[in-house]
Amino acid sequence: MNSTYYVAMLVVAIIVTLLYSLFPIYNKINPTLGGLPIFYWYQILLLAVTTILSAVVVHFVKEEGER
């Protein structure tokens, strides 16, 4: 792996850490969706965002390496 991969993953890690650090904003009981508080929905959403961002980085770095 080249250094581009590590830099890109570091940027993704920083973005995700900043999103998770917004805890006071999403630490609420109301509103609820499907019986779950917004806290749990935010956590589930961030898991999906983290997965997508990581997959995008891997995809673009892999394409760059194949050229």
UniProtKB/TrEMBL annotation:
Q: Which InterPro entries match?
A: DUF3311 (IPR021741)
Domain of life per record: Archaea
Entry keyword set? Membrane, Transmembrane, Transmembrane helix
A Pfam match: DUF3311
Transmembrane helix as a keyword? yes
The transmembrane residues are 7-26, 38-61
Q: What is this protein called?
A: DUF3311 domain-containing protein
Organism of origin is Sulfurisphaera tokodaii (strain DSM 16993 / JCM 10545 / NBRC 100140 / 7) (Sulfolobus tokodaii)
